[in-house]
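FW: tagging you since you asked about this chain on Friday. Here's the raw sequence from the shared folder, copied in full. Didn't touch anything.
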Amino acid sequence: MSKLIVLTILVLTLATGAFAQGRGRGGGNGGGRGSGGGPPSGVGVDRGLGNASSRSGGRSDDGLSNASTKSNGRSDDGLERARRASSNMRRADDDLRDHPNVPRALHTNANDLRAGYQAALASNPDLSFGNYVSATRLGQNLNRRFPNISRDAILGGLASGRSLGQTLQDLGLNSDESKAARKQAEAEIKAARKNNN
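HL: got it, structure written out here
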């Protein structure tokens, strides 16, 4: 399991690094925008896989197949987890671009919110950005009265397959308190999304 987590983090790190490298303004013939070659096929984790086979004479296919076989499918699972996390991260970037006041409503900035979400995706690649934002707000609203309720505790509940409501009840709120807390957080986040100034 720890190898899978390390593999997922490595893939996310490499994908992020590759994305950052493509942002430069090179004028050389290396394959940047000015060379006419265009980016490799695919997006994020899959970037470049489309032409890897032909460029390596089929050796990359053998490598992927061997990795899958030798790990009993765990490398495939790791790649799939990384793909889901990468897709969720792209949606989060779109959300932050469309709703720039959300970070401010959470008493943070877009970069820190994005980095926190990316870290959370390493352990739960299916975590939606909306649930991450809700967990953050709920933790802020409830932690003073209920010290065991924090964003990390809520994220742990979500990672184990529990809903927000179930997680809050697991952490000590009754059903009515959980419902009221979620309603308040939703209203605050909705107000921040409407206000795009």
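FW: The first helix runs from residue 2 to 21.
HL: agreed, and The chain has ten helices and no strands.
FW: great, closing this out.
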